[in-house]
Amino acid sequence: MEQKVFNTNGKETGTIELSDAVFNIEVSTGSIYHAIRNEAANRRVGTACTKTRSEVNYSNTKPYKQKGTGNARRGDKKSPIAVGGGTIFGPKPRDYSYHLPKKVKRLAMKSLLTLGVQENRLVVVEDFTSENGKTKDIVAIMKAFATEDQRTLIIMKDDDKMIRRAARNIPYVHVQAYDKLSAKELLYGRKILVLKGAASNLNSFYGER
Fold first, then answer.
1. Which of 31, 64, 106, 175 is the most exposed place for a label (fewest CB within 10 A)?
2. CA gap 62, 76 in Å, rounded
3. Are 31 and 104 in contact, with CB atoms under 8 Å apart?
């Protein structure tokens, strides 16, 4: 399939051939769900921690005698039903991350790229960089393709440190290399700017394997 190519001023300069195996497949909503869920789980810190009755720093003394009070028998003041006692079945530090099969992740990425084309959110732009890493360089480019504060993903052909530096102070702009894409950013990005070199790399990266 052919896709128009624009320069950084938003003017059409030509076309590029995008692989149907990457940008024009049957969208798999299930794989998209699993990819985003996996990314969220892998980012989860999992440091929540509560203390059980054996870990609480409190008195070990018996609160009252065993018999004759009419109360239930209690061995110490660290009982979970007492003020200052331990917590029953509370959270403990754990690792929430898990492995997602490569085929599922690849299908999710191709489905998201296809969605970007179908919804006219994906735009191919001539390769550019920022000479000095100035924020104003990226802001000027954004004005040609996205409205103010519109969530935008820029897909680079390689890890361009200058583009990253120029975009890091813009909260609604996210920058990623073609081989390290995020399903979340592809789904929620209102505009997806794919550099021409990155588009060619995506054709081979997801299309031939």
1. 64
2. 4
3. yes
Per-residue pLDDT reduced to its tens digit, 16-31: 999 999 999 999 999 9
Percentage of the chain modeled with pLDDT above 90: 72
The per-residue DSSP string of 133-150 comes to --HHHHHHHHHHHS-TT-
Instruction: Set out the domains of the chain in order of their start, with CATH numbers.
Output: 2-28+100-207 (3.40.1370.10), 45-95 (no CATH)
Tokens of 131: 């000479």
As a whole number of angstroms, the distance between CA 101 and CA 35 comes to 10
pTM of the model: 0.84
Amino acid letter at 130?
Answer: S
| Closest to 40 in 3D by CA, of 184, 165, 179 | 184
What is the helix, strand, coil percentage profile of the chain, to 5? 35, 15, 50
Q: How confident is the model over 58-75, as pLDDT tens digits?
A: 888 898 999 999 998 888
pLDDT of res. 190: 93
Beta bridge partners of 30: none
